[in-house]
TrEMBL record, chain A:
Keyword Metal-binding among UniProt keywords: no
Protein name, UniProt field: Phosphonate metabolism protein PhnL
Record organism: Streptomyces yokosukanensis
UniProt GO MF annotations: ATP binding; ATP hydrolysis activity; transmembrane transporter activity
Signal peptide: none
Record's GO cellular component terms: plasma membrane
Coiled coil feature spans: none
Domain ABC transporter: 15-253
Keyword annotations: ATP-binding, Nucleotide-binding
Domain of life: Bacteria
UniProtKB/TrEMBL annotation, chain B:
Protein species of origin: Streptomyces yokosukanensis
PANTHER family registered for this protein in UniProt: PHOSPHONATES UTILIZATION ATP-BINDING PROTEIN PHNK-RELATED (PTHR42764)
Pfam families reported in the protein's UniProt record: ABC_tran, PhnJ
GO biological process, one term: organic phosphonate catabolic process
Protein name listed in UniProt: ABC oligopeptide transporter
Database matches in PROSITE patterns: ABC_TRANSPORTER_1, ABC_TRANSPORTER_2
Region (Disordered): 316-346
Positions of transmembrane segments: none
TrEMBL record, chain C:
UniProt biased composition (Basic and acidic residues): 166-181
Pfam family, one: PhnI
Spans annotated as Disordered: 126-196, 355-376
UniProt biased composition (Low complexity): 143-152
Official protein name in the record: Phosphonate metabolism protein PhnI
GO BP terms, alphabetized: organic phosphonate metabolic process
InterPro entries hit by this protein: PhnI
Length: 254, 625, 376
């Protein structure tokens, strides 16, 4: 398996990325152009757990951000299957994009982007409400997610800003996975966790596939990939170098 | 401003001039205190006043042989309406024999040839200062009031131009706030004489000043009331059978003067307006005619008791109970007098749409625009020297959405907001609100009065400076009451409840609800301003640098509040700020402005992480530092 | 007796009137004739005519005498007299360029078009009190200096010198304030003027203003807390005679029916506002009846100040509504009238508040912030 996966746009792909290009123009340095992605093709299917792997700076996080439109791609296509049918994200209006983000797919970054002076329960419940739960349901779901990630209940109403890195990451993951949408983008979601909490987090992520959620994730450590991924995609120099089942691919790399 | 005036012809007919000159040459008797043309003007003004009850009709007030303030207005009205077959009665403080009354009666009788009487039953024209006679008045009577200050709004608004606007638009919320504040401070309405009334459901009018005791006599009267203000050059009227309501809240009774156990030391009446008599705490009728007739047994005291406002005597148990935190409860729908306007189903997706807004300060209008903007690095027009503060700015905002406008100071973002809300006129562009005709009407083209009306419940703004959105002399609750009364709320308790809920929501302690806002810290003032903006749940909320100028920790608190308020409401918000952290915390989408133009727009997080325009990159780099 | 409403009002009034008449008209001193007053109290008579808005020297002099020298009372008498008279005609527009100058100075320019004519002024005379023992000696036979070439021998250019403003205009240094349309001036004696008002209404209000009030407002505007108003450069000041013309009722032709004296001032304002033409000056205008230079200069300065700042601040309202002597004086005088009905009503509210407090209905208010009280 040394060539790119012969992907085709299948009907059941939740996410379909084609010929995605992204570069950055730095006007402060005489308009220098910093390339990032050079034509990425990728499909993610329901229930699939796709792990992005590769060296730092290869473009893994950029790819996630281009899909989420935190970065605006230069060209190419990102198509998301939604309740109302497939939607092209690269050209979607900002307002529609903002709405899709809440309901149809989520993005969990390495860092907690919680508003300051808000407690974990409130942060997680807010995501639940954006995804259509009522106030009571959202709090219930948030409590369940925080329990599952072993976040001490005494911290639930403490300002997220004073939590440790590991605690914040668990809050972040809980928020991302509460009432999970059909596609989740995870960017190093367990990087700051100690072994015990890491296992709980990975178990939570693993359970998502069973709920019909497609996951596209960047993991730093290979153990997580082995444990979770149904497919591994190697990114290098802004391109997909190769992809395949974790067992074969990771051994090949090793 | 629409000033109705009554001109004499500029060029009198030659024959008339000739006749007048001939009369003058003939050395006839003095024509009186007023020439006939002036009387005609006054009669026209009186007719206009009768046609528009409670409206102050301007007239070319002449100088009289009495000082301005000594009844020069009442005298002109009397001279205008009186004839030789009339009988005049003049009272001051209810007294026929006071020096001012005597002097006026003498002048009127001597120069018009009318009859004189102190008996109201015989009089046809009663000129009065400060009283309505106790005797019944009917359709034979014209009651002419001497008015020192005809403007009921003077106490709450010093600018006469602004007072005129308030009358024209029926915008009396400042009056209601002053009543609200009175009750809050004093537990009752302490306005004494000249009590403001609403005439015919339209104009707020000053009652001359007569005591509150006499105010009910204006309501559905049988007689004609004419009010003459000579110094202020205004005539107004309450015609017979006109509704006259003292301004008060639905649940706060209007009270007349009362002295428990007080009665006239001469005639013994206790159902008349009594004034202090002597130093021993005694009282006497202010109406000397009535007093004398009661003593002489020549008065229908039974009928008088029917007329007397005994149902309006002060009743402490019926008063509002001014202070203390209102009992909060879930907002009751019946508190609101009218439903909050919402876009009809099937209306536009947006709540606010702005197309091509432009603002040029100085000469040239659109012609000043070429040569300005980011690519030229200047907002100053090379051709006209005008400042192009903003040009071609377009956006729309949907319910539940928050849009950011970011840029450095001078980039034009606040100008856009001021044009939208109506604080300054736009040079170009269109604004639509879904709450106005389902978005069909162009808001900028609406008359100014209609636009101001929109600010009551269609569109609210929170300014950087709380003083711009609040009256700092008024209590926190009173500031909110201003918005609510403008929207038609007339229940004191309902207003207090709603204000209390709002202040509670913005975390202003209810113990401070009745304190004037100038005693508040900057952050607290801003919270009050936010509560006021939300009072009528407007579908569109504009925030202009809402946290700028506050200490960092205070600003953070206000920001948190705004974030949760926006999250829990279906309001369409526009947030103007130079601060990326504010924009990031509050908005989903953002426009970046530089020298009056939009240079980039996008999702807020995309602009922050992947800015494309050089200017946006500079802003982001600065924010990250 | 009789003040407040007990019996006997009329007798009291008549007695007061009689006292005034006796003390005034029968004072142990020679009677002052109207001619004496117009000749010896020229400036007082001019002031009365200006504040009354009625130009008639003998009538004003009579009013001045009746008012025992109170100029405000005298202008009240004059205006009340005016109210009794029909308006027979409206004069033709007056062109100030037709003025025969008696005095004319141009402080802003060394050699203006025409003479710097000091005329009758004590501006340059030491204010030293003179206390002559008796009437002054008859003037010497020789003619007074400058009178050698009597008025008849003045040239037309001397009698009607060019205007300093025209010089500014010729050099393109003046903002063009003249409008193409020629609107009918606002007649404040027939239509009450309130903000926003036409310029002619504000000018008319100033021309009739109580002189001291106008000067005080000007001074306050320069030194007071309102800001904005500059001390101007006085461009030109004139005192002179103008002809008054009316159209003949039968022929329709303009006919000169008399002359009247006015003081005219033009104030040169240095424009510095963002929206203003900073390369030019603007000019304020003042004109009032008689010889009253303080009033004309204050008026000219306030005219330009009002056009620049009148609407952004309180100035226009102040000019239209607060400087009329009869208005302010009358309102002040009315405080002397009985007010016991209104006062009783106020007392009742005080007692009601006290009763409520004593009944312990509510704690006393912590703050007292008047939200606005009306005058009564």
């Amino acid at each position: 398996m040394t060539t790119t996966h012969p992907s085709s746009r299948t009907q059941d792909a939740v996410l379909s990325v084609r010929a995605l290009h992204k570069s950055f123009t730095l006007h402060s340095i005489d308009g220098r152009i910093v390339p990032s992605l050079h034509g990425v093709d990728l499909d993610v299917h329901t229930g699939e757990h796709v792990a992005l792997a590769g060296p730092s700076g290869a473009g893994k996080s950029s790819l996630l951000r281009c899909i989420y439109r935190t970065y605006l791609p230069d060209s190419g296509s990102v198509r998301l299957r939604t309740a109302a049918g497939p939607v092209e994200l690269t050209t979607l209006g900002d307002r529609e994009m903002a709405r899709l983000r809440g309901r149809e797919f989520g993005y969990v970054s390495q860092f907690l982007a919680a508003p300051p002076r808000t407690g974990p329960l409130e942060v997680v419940a807010a995501t639940g409400r954006r995804r259509g739960l009522d106030r009571a349901e959202a709090r219930e779901a948030a409590a369940a997610a925080l329990h599952r990630l072993n976040l001490d209940e005494t911290l639930w109403d403490v300002d997220c800003g004073v939590l440790s890195g590991g605690e914040r990451q668990r809050v972040n993951l809980a928020a991302g996975t509460v009432e999970p949408p059909r596609l989740l983008l995870l960017d190093e979601p367990v990087s700051a966790l100690d072994p015990a909490n890491r296992e709980a987090a990975l178990a939570l992520i693993d359970s998502l596939a069973g709920q019909g959620v497609a996951v596209l994730a960047v993991f730093h450590d290979m153990d997580a990939i082995r444990q979770l991924a149904s497919r591994v995609v190697f990114v290098a120099d802004g391109r997909i170098a190769r992809q395949g089942a974790p067992a074969e691919l990771l051994e090949a790399v090793a | 401003m629409n000033t109705t005036t009554y001109d004499t012809p500029q060029s009198p007919q030659a024959s008339r001039v000739g006749a007048l000159v001939a009369a003058a040459d003939a050395g006839g008797p003095a024509a009186g205190l007023l020439d006939e043309d002036a009387k005609r003007e006054i009669r026209r003004a009186c007719l206009a006043a009768v046609c528009v009850p409670g409206y102050q009709v301007p007239f070319g007030s002449r100088e009289m042989p009495v000082a301005r303030g000594w009844g020069s207005g009442g005298l002109q009205v009397t001279l205008g309406v009186i004839g030789t077959d009339d009988t005049v009665k003049v009272i001051d403080q209810g007294d026929d024999a006071g020096v001012n009354a005597t002097n006026l009666r003498r002048m009127i009788a001597q120069t018009t040839g009318c009859g004189e009487s102190a008996d109201t039953r015989e009089a046809t024209v009663v000129q009065t200062r400060h009283r309505v006679p106790e005797e019944a008045l009917d359709d034979r009577h014209v009651l002419v009031y001497q008015v020192p200050v005809p403007e009921p709004l003077r106490g709450v608004q010093k600018s006469v131009a602004e007072c005129a606007r308030m009358h024209a638009e029926g915008d009396y919320s400042a009056m209601w706030v002053s009543l609200y504040e009175d009750i809050v401070r004093n537990g009752m309405i302490t306005a004494s004489t000249g009590y403001p009334v609403l005439v015919g459901g339209r104009y707020v009018m000053a009652t001359s000043p007569i005591p509150r005791w006499d105010v009910p006599r204006l309501h559905q009267a049988e007689h004609l009331n004419l009010f003459g203000a000579g110094r202020e050059k205004r005539i107004y009227a309450v015609p017979p059978h006109t509704e006259v309501r003292p301004l008060t809240f639905d649940d706060v009774p209007f009270e007349v003067e009362h002295e428990p156990g007080g009665r006239c030391k001469f005639c013994g009446s206790d159902d008349v307006y009594l004034v202090n008599a002597g130093t021993e705490g005694a009282f006497a009728c202010s109406d000397t005619e009535w007093c004398a007739r009661v003593q002489a047994g020549d008065a229908d005291t039974a009928a008088h008791r029917e007329r007397a406002p005994l149902a309006l005597l002060p009743d402490p148990t019926a008063r509002a109970g001014r202070r203390g935190a209102p009992a909060l409860r879930a907002a009751a729908a019946d508190d609101a007098p009218e439903p909050v306007r919402r876009p009809a189903a099937g209306g536009p997706e947006w709540a606010l749409r702005v197309d091509g807004i432009g603002k040029v300060h100085g000469a040239g209008g659109a012609a000043a625009v070429p040569g300005t903007g980011p690519e030229h690095g200047t907002a100053i027009s090379p051709s006209t020297g005008a400042v192009v503060a903003a040009w071609d700015v377009s956006f729309d905002v949907a319910p539940g959405e928050a849009l950011g406008l970011i840029g450095e100071s001078g980039s034009g973002k606040s100008t856009v907001l001021r044009c939208v809300i109506g604080d300054e006129p736009a040079t170009a562009g269109r604004v639509h609100l879904a709450s106005v005709d389902g978005g069909a009407s162009e808001v900028l083209a609406l008359p100014p009065a209609v636009r101001r009306r929109l600010r009551i419940d269609s569109m609210a703004v929170v300014y950087q400076d709380p003083a711009a959105g609040l009256d700092l002399r008024v209590s926190a609750g009173g500031n909110i009451a201003e918005r609510l009364t403008a929207a038609g709320w007339r229940g004191y308790h309902a207003i207090r409840r709603r204000a209390g809920e709002l202040l509670d929501r913005v975390e202003v302690p209810l113990s401070r609800m009745d304190d004037p806002v100038h005693t508040f810290s900057g952050g607290m003032r801003q919270r009050v301003q936010i509560a006021k903006a939300l009072a009528t749940e407007p579908p569109v909320l504009l925030l202009d640098e809402p946290t700028t100028g506050l200490d960092a920790s205070v600003a953070a608190g206000v920001l948190d509040l705004l974030r949760s308020l926006l999250a829990e409401r279906d309001v369409a918000a526009v947030v103007v700020s130079h601060d990326f952290s504010v924009i990031e915390a509050l908005t989903d989408r953002t426009l970046v402005m530089q020298t009056g133009r939009v240079v980039e727009r996008g999702l807020t997080d995309q602009l922050f992480h992947d800015p494309h325009h050089p200017y946006t990159q500079r802003l982001v780099a600065a924010a990250r530092r | 007796m009789g003040y407040s409403g007990a019996r006997g009002g009329l007798e009291a009034i008549l007695a007061a009137e009689d006292l005034v008449r006796r003390k005034r008209d029968h004072a142990p001193a020679p009677w002052a004739s109207t001619e004496q007053i117009t000749a010896r109290f020229r400036l007082a008579v001019d002031r009365v005519m200006g504040e009354a808005g009625l130009y008639d020297e003998p009538t004003a002099a009579a009013a001045f005498r009746q008012a025992e020298g109170d100029t405000l009372e005298a202008s009240h008498l004059l205006r009340a007299q005016r109210s009794t008279l029909p308006r027979l005609a409206v004069s033709e527009p007056v062109d100030p360029d037709e003025m025969t100058v008696l005095r004319r100075i141009v402080p802003a320019f060394r050699e203006p078009d025409g003479p710097q004519l000091l005329g009758r002024t004590s501006d340059y005379t030491g204010r030293l009190l003179e206390r002559p023992e008796g009437p002054p000696q008859p003037p010497p036979e020789t003619a007074a200096p400058g009178a050698a070439a009597g008025p008849a021998e003045r040239t037309e250019a001397q009698r009607r010198p060019g205007r300093f403003l025209d010089l500014l205009r010729k050099n393109d240094l003046a903002v063009e304030g003249r409008t193409a349309d020629d609107p009918e001036p606002y007649d404040i004696t027939r239509k009450p003027a309130r903000p926003p008002a036409e310029r002619s209404a504000v000018l008319a209000a100033m021309a009739r203003a109580e002189s001291g009030a106008l000067v005080a407002l000007w001074y306050r505007s320069v030194l007071g807390p309102d800001g904005d108003v500059h001390e101007i450069t006085l461009g030109e000041l004139r005192h002179g005679r103008l002809p008054l013309r009316v159209r003949h009722p039968h022929t329709g032709n303009p006919v000169a029916v008399g002359e009247f004296r006015v003081t005219e001032a033009e104030a040169v304002e240095d424009l510095d506002g963002a929206d203003e033409d900073r390369t030019r000056f603007d000019v304020g205008y003042g004109l009032c009846f008689g010889h009253n230079e303080r009033k004309a200069i204050a008026m000219a300065n306030l005219d330009i100040a009002n056009r620049r700042f009148g609407r952004s601040g309180p100035l226009e309202q102040l000019l239209l509504l607060t400087i009329d002597g009869l208005d302010s004086g009358g309102f002040l005088e009315h405080l002397k009238l009985p007010h016991y009905v209104t006062f009783r009503s106020m007392v009742e509210r005080k007692q009601a508040m006290r009763a409520a407090a004593e009944a312990g209905e509510d704690p006393p208010a912590r703050v007292a912030e008047p939200a606005g009280k009306d005058c009564r």
